[in-house]
Write a structure and sequence with these properties.
This protein is α+β, with helices and mostly antiparallel strands. It has one domain. The chain has three helices and eight strands, in the order ααββββαββββ. A hairpin with an 8-residue loop joins strand 5 and strand 6. Helix 2 packs across helix 3.
């Protein structure tokens, strides 16, 4: 397992050199990220990205069953809420409630920058598959992608949703 993890880390460019971890509470979710800094959820996101590429996918972080094909996860992203798994191939989380669609758009932009800073080289926005409310971030080194979208929340506010999944057919 250790060899597989090292190979996946190298393939994805997820080494830890050159990053400075930010403790939870030091930076609000979606706040601007400085070069060489990482967001509070960076180490969680790296682990989830690695799991997406394994044969077992997210089985090791599967929590209690929810309605439909959803399950809780034992590995929520730090600073996010309502993290869950959909089936065996999709990991998703929501930001905390935001008061307007403009706040959601600003947060989305900062989150995408934070993701790219966290995961490093090889991760970029796929402009052909993105829109103002839906951003696709892809790895050029491995078949894994995520979407970062904005939308209404259940309580008349707005949220940013992060969804991570392995790609097939690339």
């Amino acid at each position: 397992m250790r060899f597989t993890t090292i190979v996946v880390l190298a393939l994805l460019g997820l080494g830890s050199a050159g990053t400075l971890a930010v403790e939870p509470g030091d930076r609000a979710l979606g706040e601007a990220v400085k070069p060489r800094d990482t967001v509070a959820y960076c180490s969680d996101l790296k682990r989830i990205t690695i799991l997406a590429l394994t044969k077992e996918r997210f089985a090791s972080i599967l929590g209690s069953v929810r309605e439909g094909s959803f399950s809780d996860t034992t590995l929520p992203l730090t600073g996010w809420k309502d993290c869950s798994l959909y089936g065996s191939r999709t990991y998703t989380c929501e930001s905390h409630a935001l008061s307007s669609d403009r706040d959601a758009a600003t947060s989305q932009e900062a989150i995408v920058a934070g993701i790219k800073s966290c995961l490093g080289e090889g991760w970029s926005e796929d402009k052909d598959r993105s829109s103002p409310t839906y951003v696709v971030v892809r790895s050029s080194r491995a078949p894994v992608s995520m979407t970062v979208s904005t939308g209404p929340s259940d309580d008349d506010g707005y949220v940013v949703r992060l969804t991570l999944f392995p790609r097939s057919g690339d």
